[in-house]
Each structure stands twice: as C-alpha cells, then as structure tokens.
Amino acid sequence: MLLWIPCGLKAQDISKIPVIQTGNVHGRVNSHVSSAKNSPVRTVNPRPLLVKTAPDADGSTRMATTSDTTENSFFPDSFHDWLTQSTMTGDWAGWRTWLTKKGINIGGHYFQDSAGNPMGGASKNVRYAHEVGVNVDFDLKKLTGFSIGLFHLTVTSRAGLGLGAKLPALDSPQEIYGSPTVRLSLLSWEMPWNRYVTTDVGEMNAETDFESWSMYWGMNNYCQFESNAICGMPQSIAYNSGYSYYPTAHPGAWVKFYPAGNDHYSIQFGAYSVDPTIGNTHNGWKMNLHGATGTFLPFQLVWHQGGKDDYSGPLQTNVKIGGYWDSSEVKNVYSQLGTFGIPEQYLVSAPVSKVRGRFGGWFQFDRMLERDGNDPNRGTSFFASFTWGDPRTSVAPYFVDWGLTRKGTFPTRPNDTVSLGMKMLWVSPKLTSWVRELQGTGATGIYKPSGEHSIELNYGWRPTPWLLIRPGAQYIWSTGGTNKYKNPLILDFETGITL
Asked: Is residue 224 pLDDT above 50, yes or no?
C-alpha cells in the first residue's frame, strides 16, 4: 500500500517540527512490516496494494490477480493493463522479477504534499512539497546461500516549502517539506538469529521501530493522514527528546526478543546517536558521531493478536508500552519560550538552566474494529496513543492522538478510505504559568501558551494499485499554541505513486 513520509522546518533544512525545534528533520517512514509481527523482512518503499476477493461459494478467499503484461516488455499491452498492474513501472520486461528471485528487491516512490489556508492564521498561503525515494533490499540468503539476514538501503530527495511556519503551527499540517536535498535514509543489516531474537544495526532511525504505526490491509494506520502531528508517530516525542526520525539516518542498533517464539509478545531495546545537526542539508550523507550530544535509549513491550493476515482469522489488536532515556545535556523548558513569540526583552529574565538527561514514555493501542463479512477487503480500524515527556525539558509533556479509518467506501470502491483523526497537544504548564506571571507585572503584547489541537477528515481515492489521491481538510485550534491568531482551516491534497 502507499505509505508516506513527513517533515520540514527551515528553508535550509528539512525538519519535522516546524516551530519548536530548528535544524532537525523529522518524518514518516514509508512502509514497514507491522512492528508487532515476527517477520524479519522490512522494506521502506510504498507497497503495491494487494486485494483479496470476496469469499467464494465454498467460503474460501483468494488473492485477486493484478494485470501485469510487462513480463516481456517495458510497456504494458494496454492502458487498462497499466492501470491495474501492481506498480507504475511494471516488471521491467521481467528484470524486476528476476532480480527479486535472486534476492534483490528494488522499489521507489513519489509523494507530493500540498496545503493552503483560505481562512485563519497569520496570513493566507499555499505550499507544495514532494519526496522521491529509492530503496533496495537484499536477501543475503538468496544472494549468498548463507542465512545471514538482510541488507537495506534507502535514498530520498525532498524539495518544497512548508505551511506550518506561516500559520504558525506547532505541528506542521504537511507531512513533508524541505530544501532540495539527497539524503541517505537507511543503511542497515538486519539479522533474524532464530525465532526468538532479531537484530538490526547501521545508519537508521528510531521512528521505524519505536512508538510507530501498525499495518492494516497493507496500510500504515497512522499515515492515512496528511497532518504531521499524526503521521509517522506521535509528534511530541520528537519535540521532547533526541528521538531520531525519518528521513534522517543515525548510527544505531536494536534487538528484539520474542519470548514465546512467535509474534504475540515482544520486547525491544535500541540505541541511537542524538545529533541536532543531522537535519541540515549538508549533512544528508553524514555517517559518523561528530557533533553527537548523547544517546537515545528506547525500549518497548508489544502484545499482538490477529490472524495470519487482515483478510481472515481473528481481528488484529496491538498494545505497545515504551519509554526512553536520552543522555544529552540540554536546556530546560524555559529555553523554548521564544517559540511562542515572547519578545526578547522578557526572555532574559527566564530561569533557563541546563539539564543532563531526558526521559519519557508512551502507550499505544490499535485494533481492527470490524471486517465486512461479505468482503474481507472492507473494514474499520482504530488507533489511539498517549505520550508523556520529562516535565523539566518537555515543551509538550502531554500529547494524545487518535484516528479512525474506514476501508471500502462504496460498492465499487473496496480500496478507497475515509479517515478521521485528531491530535491534542498541551504546552508545559511551567511556560503557561511563567507567561501568566509576566502578564501580571503589566507586560503587554504577549500571549499565554496553552496548547494546540487539530482535527482532520480526508478521502483516500485509489484509482489503481499504485496511485493514491487524497484530498482532505484540517482545522486547528489555537494555532501556534496561543490565541493570537484566528483558528485556521487547512485544505490539503496528497498524491502518492509506487514506482
């Protein structure tokens, strides 16, 4: 399925958080096997949509075949065949299948993210951004004959401006933006040692494996939304820590244990370099620890139940509980007052100090609420999460998001979706109290920060297995975390192509 990628902040960088942090790049990872599944195979390119038919008369189901006439040609036999093949570029006259059988899986994607605010905010603007990515996954057993795992490589390129800084907004309403940059996004060796232990090491990010999404019908359940507040992971963890995020790649590693030898239970530990400069455009291929400020150390417990796929058997459910320690020395939360437009003359009196180490945690729940009895392609899924951050340093110590997706909208549209989601971000009460006291002294022209909440509704039209067209709308309360500006309405439009 088509799964997309977020980020953007400064014109010279790409970053996921538009206002609160600069010089960082956050973003959504593309597709990936469900983190609850005990499968070592991982890919970061958008997957083609796999469709199952309704049950036959005998009650069985089978995977619907796609029309792909490029096994012996670089071009499909007809326009209909092109529209129904699994990827836009097809099988490359058989070379794609040949390479896959040899252990080399090549994928790619194009994704564009547009948004504009006809009302509200500091000014009215329209912004466009896109990302192009190529990934290669090597099955080393097929290539060498030895069971030595998998090797992953992903390279991405982004361009375009973000709307969030113009509103302003604490969470960007767009998943992606950034100055033109070609970037290494993944270079890792993944090794399933046995059915109890899997490891991964290399240039990578925590977003792929900690406090991330689950997969439903081949779709990333968080990234059925354009808002970067939801897509990829709950945004506040990136505000509050050195959590590493797509599309950046940091030196890192993780180990996952399956105590029962299956995917019902798992416990995972990781270690990633914290590098505040990794989002800068000139650091797109940085592969060292120079400039690192510490280590991000997450852990996560996962409980999973469900059938062998989402088309049959028990309905999927996932519960994830995790936490982290970030060893970096950083300034406390009062250093973020400038985010809310506090004039410089007042900031000099803020009680800014340094803190060694940050911590936090999360709880996530998602479930397939129902699967239509007459068509396993159709159904409804739900997710919700709560994220908490260190009150000494966290500008957003409390963050909640949730989403509801209905797959199969009309009798002839089993793969289209309607999604409704919301995020609620509460600013640190320390900042709220400090500004309230400042106002009490007679200070004028300042606004008390409290929080920023938003809601999104969209329609995902999938005219082909390899194309996604998703118009939608967002509404933001207290944009920028204060009541300085009128609440904006955002009209957004996404397009994604699996190459």
From this structure: yes
Pseudo-torsion of CA 216, 250, 206, 396, nearest 10°? -120
Neighbours of 251 (CB within 10 A): 19
User: What's the confidence (pLDDT) of residue 68?
Assistant: 72
**Residue 194, token pair as written in the block:** 């046995």
pLDDT for 73: 87
Question: Strand, coil or helix: what is 46?
Answer: coil
Torsion of Cα atoms, 234 then 405 then 176 then 239, to 10°: -10
CATH topology of domain 194-493: Porin (2.40.160)
Give the largest Cα separation in the chain, rounded: 78
Q: What are the distances in angstroms from CA 154 to CA 104, 135, 477?
A: 13, 4, 37
- Report pLDDT for 128: 96
Which of left, alpha, beta for 97 (phi over 0: left; psi -120 to 50: alpha)?
alpha
Strands 104-119 and 126-139: antiparallel
265-to-316, 317, 399, 400 alpha-carbon distances in Å: 14, 12, 26, 25
Question: What residue has token string 């767009």?
Answer: 174
Nearest to 160 by CA among 177, 173, 181, 175: 177
Backbone angles phi, psi at 192, to 5 degrees: -85, 100
How much is the average pLDDT of 191-200? 98
Nearest 5°: CA angle at 187, between 186 and 189?
Answer: 125
Q: How many CB atoms lie within 10 A of CB 120?
A: 17
The confidence score (pLDDT) of residue 415 equals 94
C-alpha span between 104 and 136 (Å, rounded): 7
Q: How far is residue 2 from each of residues 49, 221, 265, 405, measured CA to CA in Å?
A: 7, 11, 27, 15
Residue 478 buriedness (CB in 10 A; 0-12 / 13-18 / 19+):
buried
Question: For residue 287, which phi and psi values (nearest 5 degrees)?
Answer: -135, 45
Rounded CA-CA distance 286/283 in Å is 5
Residues 6+ apart with CB under 8 A from 164: 8, 9, 18, 19, 171, 172, 173, 174, 228
Beta bridge partners of 422: 402, 455
Asked whether 413 and 375 are in contact (CB, 8 A), the reply is no
459 CB contacts (<8 Å, ≥6 apart)? 409, 416, 417, 418, 470, 471, 472
In this structure, what token pair is assigned to residue 30? 């593309």
The 10s digit of each residue's pLDDT in 422-457 is 999 999 999 999 999 999 998 888 999 999 999 999
pLDDT-derived band of residue 358, with 50, 70 and 90 as boundaries?
very high
Residues in the chain: 499
Structure tokens at 2: 């088509």
Tell me 480's DSSP state: G
Q: Is the pLDDT of residue 179 over 90?
A: no
- CA–CA separation, 364 and 49 (whole Å): 26
**Cβ proximity of 129 and 159 under 8 Å:** yes
Beta bridge partners of 204: 250
